[in-house]
Structures are given as structure tokens and as C-alpha cells.
Amino acid sequence: MRPADGDLYRRALRGIRQRTGVPLAFAGQLRDRRLVLSHFLGARTNGLRDLLVEPGKGVGGTVLAREHPHGVSDYRAARSITHDYDDPVLGEGIQATVAVPVAVRGRVDGVLYAAVRDDLPLGDRATGALLAIADGVARELAIRDEVDHRLELLGAATPDGLRAELAAIAADAPPGPLRDRLLRVCERFGGPAAAPETSLSARELDVLGEVALGCTNAEAAARLALKPETVKAYLRSAMAKLGVHRRQQAVLEARRLGVLP
């Protein structure tokens, strides 16, 4: 059975709270071309729950229409959005919010939001964190779609061929229920498939995580309580282990291996 996609979105909300410190994170999934807000962390009211967001309306609808992040620092006075949903948004006390799309193979599957109830703006760092989390959600959704497609071919495919394809998907899947499911299916076709391994240390992963958020070496050092030279050393070591020569290449490769969200 396919893991529930809602669980994936709820896990994303925990990541948003942890990475940005915002008091409110929520998400919606697309149904019949409309966004249904159904996952919340930190909500005080039920006003936004199950709200249907139309493309082009409000912050989320703007994201749907443009397929691009969008945010406002003063929701009540914002001119870049329509105000169709003022009652539930302002009833929740939201003052600033930013939202990003979860796009799977060019198709928006949902939208992730971060929001605050004071006049502190949500800057580029918060947007970068949301984009990184949305990318992780999109990658796992794409893998789940591919798994479902491959399992539909069970009756027509040869065992060896199917096992090889599923093993390749497992190698790209992040640790968790989905990878476990893939490995169990592989075992039905002639033995277990090895999951990808990495020799990256915990500190190297910490540094790559800060790089993924767009931090400079100095900013990563301050956030991790390290010296900038130490951050550089960890970054050089991680790039060497991953066989790349640039910071962003290291982030992409670590995500491909499933060791970085």
C-alpha cells in the first residue's frame, strides 16, 4: 500500500517549524484544480481548515497561478494579492506569510506555507528553507508515483528486470517507509537490494544543510557554533567524498543519495 501523501506533508510542516522557527506552518494539496488547506501545525482556529483556494486568489492561489513562491509582509494591506480569504486569514492572526509550490514533474501537487502573527517579515532565508523542503516532498512524491507505475507492471515484467528497476528507485529514495517498501518488493524477486551508503559525518551533513538554506560559510559557522575555517574544512571534505567541486553540487548529490532532506 502506498504511504499516505498527507503524512509526507505533515512531516514537511514539522521541518518548516524546525528550520524557520515560525509559529504557524500549513499546507494544502490540489484537488480538481483547487487547493484544499488541510494540514496545520500551530493553528489557533479552524477558520482555514478545508478552505478551498482558487488559482490567482490570495497568497496560495497566486502561487498556483504563477507556479512560483509568493509572500506578503503585511497581509491586510498587501496589494499583490486578492483579499478573498481575509476573514479566515486575519481571524488566525496572520500578518506575514510566504508560500511555495510543491511541483512534481512540472505539475503543482500542493503548496507549503510559513506564517507569523507579528510584524517580523519572512525573508529570503525562510523562503529558501521552504523551497528546500518542498523539493524534498516533490522528489518523494515523484518516486511514489513511479513505484505505483512499476508495481502495475508486475504481471508483465520479468522478475529480474523489475527487481533491477525497483532497486534503482530505492537507491534514489530517502530513508523511511517508502525505501523500506521498495526493498521488501525487491526481496520478492531474488534477494535484497542494497540501499545507498555515504561516509559523510554528522558535522559534514550539518554544514551541507546550512549550505542548502543559502548560508555563507560565515553564517553557517555562526549557526553551528564553529569557526569559518572549520566550516570550510568540513565542506571540502564533504565535496571530496561526494566527488564534486562546488557547494551546490554537493547539496544536490547528498539529496540524490537521500542523506540530506
Word description of this protein:
The structure is a single chain. 49% of the residues lie in helices and 15% in strands. It has 261 residues and is α+β, with helices and mostly antiparallel strands. Among the domains are: 5-122, Beta-Lactamase; 202-256, Orthogonal Bundle (Arc Repressor Mutant, subunit A). A six-stranded antiparallel beta sheet has the order 3-2-1-6-5-4, sandwiched between helices. Helix 1 runs antiparallel to helix 4, helix 4 (124-152) runs antiparallel to helix 5 and helix 8 (217-224) crosses helix 9. Mean pLDDT is 85; it is low at 192-196.
Keywords:
alpha+beta, globular, 261 residues, Beta-Lactamase, six-stranded antiparallel β-sheet, Arc Repressor Mutant, subunit A
String of helices and strands? HEEEHEHEEHHHHHHH
CATH H-level superfamily of the domain at 5-122: GAF domain
User: What share of the residues lie within helices?
Assistant: 40-55%
Give the termini distance in whole angstroms. 23 Å
Briefly say what this structure is.
InterPro entries: GAF (IPR003018), GAF-like_dom_sf (IPR029016), Sig_transdc_resp-reg_C-effctor (IPR016032), Tscrpt_reg_LuxR_C (IPR000792), WalR-like (IPR039420), WH-like_DNA-bd_sf (IPR036388). This protein is of the alpha+beta class.
